[in-house]
Specification:
Distance between the termini: 29 Å
Helix content: 10-25%
């Protein structure tokens, strides 16, 4: 089975310079890995099947190896949330789409999750706020056609 677009992320996270309120979860990640390797918790390898599927088809392949199985490269997913996104809140977006959205939306939150499709390791690695800062009315839900 071939993976969807073979996009490779460089080692530093692709966080735009215009990002605000950047939170790096590296300390929490290290603590969780220490807990896992000490044998205290196996619940850390519990990626939802939908998260694994999303990583395979929409994820950005990073050049970082999984810290648990050390065999597979990690996938990065960027989830966007915000009231001003309306029905599109909670969707996975590419780095380029987020840059474009930041010119059109007042404010929204981006969460970057790393996922290993081999051993199911997953962890929130960073979050930040994007947007042009211009207040706008919350959009009405658009009709969905099937």
């Amino acid at each position: 089975m071939s993976r969807s677009p073979a996009r490779i992320a460089t080692s530093p996270l692709l966080i735009p310079e215009s990002a605000r309120e950047v939170i790096d979860y590296a300390l929490d990640r290290r603590a969780k890995l220490r807990e896992l390797f000490s044998g205290f918790s196996s619940e850390l390898l519990d990626a939802d099947p939908y998260l694994i599927r999303a990583a395979k088809h929409h994820g950005l392949v990073s050049d970082r190896k999984c810290p648990v199985c050390r065999r597979e490269n990690l996938f990065e997913l960027r989830y966007t949330f915000g009231d001003l996104l309306g029905q599109y809140s909670g969707r996975i977006k590419s780095h380029e789409e987020i840059e474009e959205m930041s010119q059109q939306v007042g404010e929204f939150q981006v969460y970057i999750v790393e996922v290993c499709i081999k051993c199911s390791w997953n962890h929130l690695i960073a979050s930040y706020v994007m947007g042009d800062g211009i207040p706008r009315a919350i959009p009405r839900r658009l009709p969905t056609y099937e």
